[in-house]
Specification:
mainly alpha; 13 helices; 83% helix; 295 residues
């Protein structure tokens, strides 16, 4: 009987320990999710809260490794921080903010690569984000010291290599029509123009556009973003009427779906006005400029 009782007690203790472990795991997951929700809402933070937001992000960043024991949880937190710093940098566009975003995405990518392998969706997602922000940061280097400018070419080269590798892996692991594959392709396309081959960029954009239209229809955000990429490739080939057509399509849809006061609507209207002006169509360009000033 004593043996049976001892075994029963051990079983009860084991059950309790297991329950406590499960509960602790759930609490950690809930805590991580809470932080992720806060960080991923960064693009809606009030501009006037800039200093407070930056301090919050820096404090969270300094505690990630102390509060998260799981490597993937830390990677997810780093990715969310990268998104938050990136959103913050879009509102307050400074090189230090973008560098923080690059650093977080780099850590997230390296951790996911180590834990999940080089063809996992989460790894490829972080790889794309790291390369994209690295490229964006390189663009800001022009506004700073000569020494910083020297690194611009190196950053762009690294970003292009990362995206080229990510696209090949995504095509093999996820397929040609996967949204992440198509997003990586779009992010890679401007590099062809930078290397003096906008025709190749156009070809890639048109391939992506055809697939996205089949997947989502004409009004999806990814479709409109691809049309903007395509317009840029056309402009670099001096094919302004074709680029104008792309801008008009995007402008019409964004005005109808997002409204005239939306920032994305402003962007495409500004681009449309500019390309009309470049073609001497001032009677069409000036009213758009006035509309933007009045909003």
């Amino acid at each position: 009987l004593a043996g049976i009782a001892g075994t029963t007690i051990q079983a009860i203790r084991a059950t309790h320990e297991r329950d406590r472990a499960v509960q602790a795991e759930r609490q950690a997951a809930a805590r991580s999710q809470l932080w992720l929700d806060i960080l991923q809402d960064a693009d809606s933070w009030n501009v006037g809260m800039g200093a407070v937001v930056e301090q919050l992000l820096d404090r969270v960043e300094g505690r990630v490794d102390q509060t998260e024991n799981d490597a993937l949880a830390r990677a997810n937190m780093r990715y969310a921080l990268g998104e938050a710093y990136s959103a913050f940098g879009a509102t307050f566009p400074t090189l230090p903010q973008m560098r923080k975003s690059v650093g977080q995405f780099r850590i997230a990518y390296e951790n996911r690569l180590r834990e999940l392998g080089n063809s996992h969706r989460d790894t490829l997602e972080a790889m794309d984000a790291y390369a994209k922000t690295l490229s964006d940061t390189a663009g800001l280097e022009d506004n700073y010291s000569d020494e910083a400018k020297k690194t611009r070419g190196e950053r762009l080269t690294e970003a292009e290599q990362l995206l080229t590798t990510a696209l090949a892996r995504a095509r093999a692991a996820l397929g040609e029509y996967d949204p992440l594959t198509l997003r990586i392709a779009n992010d890679l396309s401007p590099f062809y123009s930078l290397r003096g081959n906008p025709k190749q960029a156009e070809q890639l954009n048109r391939e992506v556009l055809t697939k996205l239209l089949a997947l989502h229809g004409p009004e999806h955000a990814a479709v409109l973003s691809t049309r903007m990429f395509l317009a840029d490739a056309l402009i670099r080939q001096q094919r302004l009427p074709e680029a104008e057509q792309q801008y008009r399509i995007v402008a019409d849809i964004r005005k109808r779906t997002l409204g005239n006061t939306n920032s994305d609507t402003h962007t495409v209207l500004g681009n449309l006005s500019g390309i009309l002006e470049d073609q001497g169509k001032l009677d069409e360009s000036i009213p758009i400029r006035r509309q933007l000033l009045d909003i």
